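User: Show me a protein chain along with its predicted structure.
Assistant: Here is one chain, sequence first, then structure tokens.
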Amino acid sequence: MLLLHHMLKIEDNLSKEMYQELLLVKLRYKAPKSEESQLIEQLVDRDWRPLEQSSDNFRFSAAVTGFSLLLKESLYKGTLSYSQIVQLAESAKGKDAQGYRAKFIELVKKAKVLSMKAAK
């Protein structure tokens, strides 16, 4: 596959199917007491799928991220609401052996109530 930053240099007559790569994530880390860093590279392709078809972990992570956007009153929250976050988190609860996801959902519900009281 061609790297994304090279794609712009490729002639227009090449097949669009070759451009499945969206980006390449490079992460470098160094273990404690280690002299050398390790490089991890992960290719992210254009394998798009609806949120409903994503894994429980992905959807739950999206709910946590959305909650943080609401708490920060971020401009990037768009029309996201506490109700949507609760719905997404509940649909992605999956196996919750330690109960952390259930606790998160309860936290979002409490934040929703508090935000409604603050708005009055």
